[in-house]
């Protein structure tokens, strides 16, 4: 029987401390935390018109809905069909129709940030670039013009523009941004969490049952790491990105680890999942929204209050009116989404 899933805020005093680690690699640019670009190192390239590459909705998403044993792990690629950049920055936009782009920095600056903003400035986030290899980043704000900037640290909190470009994007695989791995939720077909999800969801046909099973597994096998949370809050972890398998093996983690593990498992089971961070009234908060087949996007399916994860009732979401559902999970005005991954 499908289980009902709902979350409540249970602790306000510890929330700021425990969620500090969530802000390290995807924070909105502000006067105190954002790169402060000096004179651009290069001129921005003309705004390109990306071509469609494999943009159709993946048939595996619907054709194998009932086979939870076979993981779904699409691989982000940088085929080089359409690339923008210079001698130190490469932005491969060949697959923007799938809902992501690939970025590589090969310069010498030890501190590099990438900022992306969606149409009309939507979901403006800053990421730390720490790898010399291509990394995938999702385009979470739908169709429109995205601006991508790469910045090198020159001193203190001052950064110079290494490269900047505006892209006209049309996403044909609307689930792609929430099914592909990315920097924030990084995994492959060999990730242990993917294998675990396949095992515990074996022979489970219902998406709602898979969601419930994955939730129960995570809360029963992962403990909150208060020591790591203290390190994150003091900035000692730097640009923290979750190591999914390490946290799964150790059986503990902070909010980003919980979120990454759960989102990885859901996506590998063909359940599109949006990791959302923002505010519920005055409380900094994280929740996950998922796409349920034949129901659509159900907002706030999984939420994290800094202490525990809880779930709302998916059966309720599948059977009641949209008005009742909205009342059940709360007035939308209470939820202010700042970042979507």
Please name the defining characteristics of this protein.
disordered N terminus, Immunoglobulin-like, six-stranded antiparallel sheet, 28% strand, 341 residues, five-stranded mixed sheet, 17 strands, alpha+beta
The strand count comes to: 17
Report the major sheet.
6 strands, antiparallel
Widest β-sheet, arrangement of strands? 1-16-15-14-13-17
Number of helices: 9
Report, as a whole number of angstroms, the end-to-end distance.
30 Å
Determine the oligomeric state from the structure: single chain
Low-confidence stretches: 1-66, 313-320
Kindly identify the CATH topology of the largest domain.
Answer: C8orf32 fold
Rounded to the nearest angstrom, the radius of gyration is 20 Å
- Fraction of helical residues: 10-25%
Number of domains: 2
- Arithmetic mean pLDDT: 74
Order of helices and strands: EHEHEEEEEEEEHHEHHEHEEEEHHE
Q: Tell me the fraction of residues in β-strands, as a range.
A: 25-35%
CATH architecture of the largest domain: Roll
CATH class of the largest domain: Alpha Beta
Structural class designation: alpha+beta
* Basic shape: globular
Explain this structure.
It is a single chain. With 341 residues, the chain is of the alpha+beta class. The chain is built from nine helices and 17 strands. Mean pLDDT is 74; it is low at 1-66 and 313-320. The chain folds into two domains: 5-25 and 184-340, C8orf32 fold; 36-173, Immunoglobulins (Immunoglobulin-like). The strands form four sheets. A six-stranded antiparallel beta sheet has the order 1-16-15-14-13-17. It has a five-stranded mixed beta sheet with strand order 2-10-9-6-7, with no helix packed on it. The chain has helices spanning 15-19, 60-63, 192-200, 207-221, 226-233, 244-250, 255-268, 314-319, 322-329; strands at 5-6, 36-37, 83-85, 89-92, 100-105, 112-117, 125-128, 135-138, 144-155, 158-169, 223-224, 252-253, 273-280, 283-292, 296-304, 309-312, 335-340.
